[in-house]
Amino acid sequence: MKTDNPVIYLDNNATTMVAPEVLEEMLPYFSQWYGNPSSMHSFGGMVGRKIRQARERLAALLGASDEEIIFTSCGTESDSTAIYAALQANPDRKHIITSRVEHPAVKNLCDHLSKNGYRVTTIGVDKDGNLDLDELYGHLTPDTAIVSLMWANNETGVIFPAEEIAEKTAAAGILFHTDAVQAVGKLPIDLKTNSIDMLSLSGHKLHAPKGIGALYVRKGTKFSPFLIGGHQEKGRRGGTENTASIIGLGKAAELAAQKMAEENTRVLQLRDRLETELVKRVPHSFVNGKAARRLPNTASIAFEFVEGEAILLLMNEHGICASSGSACTSGSLEPSHVLRAMGVPFTAAHGTIRFSLSVYNTEAEIDFVIDRVPDIIERLRQMSPFWKSGACAA
Amino acid sequence: MWEYTDKVKDHFLNPRNVGEIENADGVGEVGSLACGDALTLYIKLDENKRIKEAKFKTFGCASAIASSSALTEMVIGKTLEEAQQITNEQIAEYLGGLPKEKMHCSVMGRDALEKAISCYLGKDTKAIDGEIVCECFGVTDHQIERAVRENKLTTVEAVTDYVKAGGGCGKCHDKIQEIIDAVLGAQKPKMAAPVKGKLTNIQKVKLVEETLAREIQPSLRKDGGDIELVDIDGNTVFVRLKGSCSQCKMSQVTLKHYVQTKLQELVTPEITVEEVTS
User: Fold this and answer.
1) Which of A152, A169, A170, A148 is nearest to A161 (CA)?
2) Interchain pair A117, B219: CB under 8 A
3) Are the Cβ atoms of A334 and B61 closer than 8 angstroms?
4) A328 catalytic, yes or no?
5) Nearest CA to A77 among A109, A121, A113?
6) I need a labelling partner for A207 at 20 to 30 A (CA). Which of A36, B41, B252, B273 fits?
């Protein structure tokens, strides 16, 4: 990347900048206040009180009570904890339901469990990425231990009706877990008013640091710890607390609650402008999941007949950071399983770019991207054997 | 982000010889939209049958474009015989190396060159050479054999890096392994057939060992785990789980629903499996 260009960071579904307010609140807990929150002395006790405040802040963002929050190391740990806890709570039930578009944290765990005595049903999505609810409800059986579905998709931003599904699963006596890593901080969530049993989140998706996550477990849900050790987190997750990061997550939760309205208005406007202009200026391009209800910050745009990694690297030359659903960026050889599950043709799946915004993005940045990307696509198309005179040559 | 050499970056950002040759003497087309990369190579010869012009059009990632660009630079000025000697390794070396996962881009270049030369010589370049092994990427047994032989590949993962075979659904992994074994002259010993009737102790021990090695260990190792045989007492097989299996909360499910079931199926239905944890 050329260093004379400022970075335009549009990869916030991958990770976010630590908010300055978050960093400021964390710093003293690396140096000045380094006590162990489990210690009996007041030096550690003060840290313990700060962790309590973080728990209350996060609980407030989720509409939960603070004893329902377990701090973990990341979203993946939260997902694994939730699913294993559900299986252990119902040892006679051997059926898991999930979807075809889950994050690898759930997808690969379910693949693993399917080889180890569990029956896993993966529910499909339509061309817009909406979950097939009839298919889902048709698979609920007395043998189902858990339904685990993401709240919002990390690639397309498509939102699943998690609250509605939770009502159905609760009525059927089945535990419902949602991987809400992309939803928390972007969508209003009030766990007091729905039947979601467990919810995973990750700090670095909402301007807290990497390496901190949390799992919400509804009071009364049978639970067994994933990490067995000390008495931390009331025995539900052993291991000395990642103190500064927990405090950072608490502050980030407080900021998210304050900035959600902005995310849902200004960021949405920027995202919509980006989508509209790029699709208008680049022939043979479209928005994946356009017709679905989506996160306000996510744009998954398919540029047909070009390949994603090449687009990303040319954007990188202009300081534009985004992600691709193409195979070549992931080390895999097949394009995104999410796009393939939606039936996005290969012509488009290989050339899909995910732009994910945050409250820190500006209109000028979006204008810059709108100005540069069409030329990048045209340059690659001129090089492509599948492109001739403004149309597909294949 | 992939670690590309400066030369790869240069050929990607400033590709040489992009385009088509209208009256090309030879055209080589490889790859497809479905595969995620494709290359069309055009060559034109001079009166001395040397390649005087080479151009390309590529759909693909940075290393695919860079490999195509490098290939055109390498072939210009060569006779067809000299060009035919170019290997995929030489294309990669010309670029200062490629990530191992991207070696298939260099193979694509070499294949396009061969097709372009065949085209000039009037050979049918559309015919599929061999039997398709990898349905996902349309790779034949001959292509896999050649990649294994030329690049001394020893694993399925390496074959995937070089020719993509096995990089999709994974159903062809066993067949690829068979081809690797055949090329390397290390044919796997055939598994002893289950013995009808009552097994002797030696037969039972041998069958349990073989089943663990051939059927169970490879599967567990894919997930970072492993298993070892500790002892056999009558029909009770004592094993120790290792790696990620040893910490897995589902280890008992693995033992009873997978390991025990497999041993009952392939050795004797009376077998039970017990874990040794000390």
Assistant:
1) A152
2) no
3) no
4) yes
5) A109
6) A36
